[in-house]
Amino acid sequence: MPFSLANKGLATYVVWTVLLGATVTGLASSNWSLAAVGFTTFLLTLLPVFFSTRFAVKLPVSFVSMIVIFIFATIFLGEAFDFYEQYWWWDVLLHGGSAVGFGLFSFLLVFMLFQGDRYSAPPIAIAFITFSCAVAVGVSWEILEFAADGLFGLNMQKSGLQDTMWDLIVDGLGGTFAALGGFFYLKGKELGGLTNLIEEFIALNKQFFAKLGKPKNSKRNRSEGE
User: What global pTM score does this model have?
Assistant: First the structure.
């Protein structure tokens, strides 16, 4: 699959324009910090494009837009413009969003292993794996924050234990929401836009879900009907 920056959604192009504009402005005004953060963030927002190209996975425009906005909000707005300090809810919002995102990714990955076979994929087990992966990513991030504060004298943990615990609670809530989305999808039910995102991804990557919609005993049923 050739590398392409086309058809990534209006939100993505707006973010890229802002980041490149910030980079140029930083260079022109000798604001090296702004230039570095802007360009680094821009490179990181290209990750979903590289992922899609490298693994031949088609990412829906909505997926790409959400990932790009999340990276932009986390690094550029959060660090360069200090949104974490200005708005107490910024960290909570991003932790919850990342937990839902990683949980959704975990669900799709596990469902791929079953090749989309709803009849063999146990909804409870997959929901539990989805929740566990989302929380595991959150825990890993908290460990990274603790290590960065200790090694480099940063203040990523803000208020220490209280900040960490609230982050983990939000991670758990986000992971639960993602797990419920996967569970209801396997049950053939709707859970807001989350099940729509799952269906959108599967529709673009049918090669990974070859058994989707095929009853487990379809061959036996056909032979009995004959």
Answer: 0.83
